[in-house]
TrEMBL record:
<dbReference type="InterPro" id="IPR008280">
    <property type="entry name" value="Tub_FtsZ_C"/>
</dbReference>
<protein>
    <submittedName>
        <fullName>Tubulin gamma-1 chain</fullName>
    </submittedName>
</protein>
<comment type="similarity">
    <text>Belongs to the tubulin family.</text>
</comment>
<keyword id="KW-0493">Microtubule</keyword>
<dbReference type="InterPro" id="IPR023123">
    <property type="entry name" value="Tubulin_C"/>
</dbReference>
<dbReference type="GO" id="GO:0005874">
    <property type="term" value="C:microtubule"/>
</dbReference>
<keyword id="KW-0206">Cytoskeleton</keyword>
<keyword id="KW-0547">Nucleotide-binding</keyword>
<dbReference type="GO" id="GO:0005815">
    <property type="term" value="C:microtubule organizing center"/>
</dbReference>
<keyword id="KW-0963">Cytoplasm</keyword>
<keyword id="KW-0342">GTP-binding</keyword>
<dbReference type="GO" id="GO:0005525">
    <property type="term" value="F:GTP binding"/>
</dbReference>
Length: 75
């Protein structure tokens, strides 16, 4: 059975938009500052956001006919 689940990228896109809004307003960051990993900065959160964006990009690439060669141009 073959299935196409690339539409899940819309969920990730919405999550990124919501994260961006919260990050811009610095909402709820005080809760994170209580943790050792976030005392000095929020790099871990920002890196995670980048990874989700890369996932979105790959899902979008998977919908194109040239997906088989996607990502090889960078190397």
């Amino acid at each position: 059975m073959m299935a196409n689940h690339t539409n899940i990228s819309s969920l990730f896109e919405r999550t990124c938009r919501q994260y961006d809004k919260l990050r811009k307003r610095e909402a709820f960051l005080e809760q994170f500052r209580k943790e050792d990993i976030f005392k000095d900065n929020f790099d871990e959160l920002d890196n995670s956001r980048e990874i989700v964006q890369q996932l979105i990009d790959e899902y979008h690439a998977a919908t194109r006919p040239d997906y088989i060669s996607w990502g090889t141009q960078d190397k």
